[in-house]
Amino acid sequence: MDVASTSAIERIARVLAGLRISTNADGDDAHASGAVDATWHDFREDAIAILKTLREPDAAMERVGDIAIWSRMIAAALDEMA
Fold first, then answer.
1. Spans of the chain, pLDDT less than 70
2. How many CB atoms lie within 10 A of CB 9?
3. Confidence (pLDDT) at 47
4. How many CB atoms neighbour CB 39 within 10 A?
5. At a CB cut-off of 8 Å and minimum separation 6, what does 20 contact?
6. Does 2 fall in a domain?
7. Which domain holds residue 22?
8. What pLDDT sits at residue 20?
9. Distance (Å, rounded) from C-alpha 53 to C-alpha 67?
10. Can you give the pLDDT at residue 1?
11. Is 23 contained in some domain?
């Protein structure tokens, strides 16, 4: 499995920015990468809220994974915001 070079918070924030900006999502900019680069910080708090929501896995996630490892991984991603 590949390991990302950017934080989970940044990646989620970039996805959220892209959803708002890019015509490939819900936005109206056909060439949104520059706008996403410039605005992803505006979606950082939303990304943190999403990660906080994911601290508790659902039943399907529990069936296939280790909850303790999941919890540590999400906590590590949230610690990056400190």
1. 23-31, 81-82
2. 21
3. 97
4. 17
5. 26, 27, 43
6. no
7. 8-79
8. 85
9. 14
10. 82
11. yes
